[in-house]
Amino acid sequence: MSRLSLITKQKAQRAKRTRKVTVGTTERPRLSVSISNQHVTAQIIDDSSSKTLAYASSVGKKLDKQTMTDKATNIGEEIAKKAKQAKITKVVFDRGSKKYHGRIKALAESAREAGLEF
What we know:
By secondary structure, the protein is an alpha+beta fold. It is 41% helix and 19% strand. The chain has 3 helices and 4 strands. It has helices at residues 3-21, 68-85, 103-113; strands at 30-35, 40-46, 51-57, 92-94. A hairpin with a 4-residue loop joins strand 1 (30-35) and strand 2. Helix 2 packs parallel to helix 3. The protein is globular and about 45 Å long.
């Protein structure tokens, strides 16, 4: 097994382990966060009906001069505003395969400050 395929497999296993515990319902949908090398994406998902209720991403925005942590903070605020518009106040936080540290933590704290509960 090559090194890259091993890393991909381990990342998928970590994400599966996290998502085994965090399930989004109609009352408390799941806030799923994805961070790549250049962009930050967050979406609120109702797993019972398999629908995305709110979505925010740094793709196509004028955030090129900012650091990734600043982008994560902006997306956290934006997803909280869109959740309020969709009348969502409580969510379950899904960090995927990442640690709750750095950019993930910045997004979560800015979403909390903007009014989301998790």
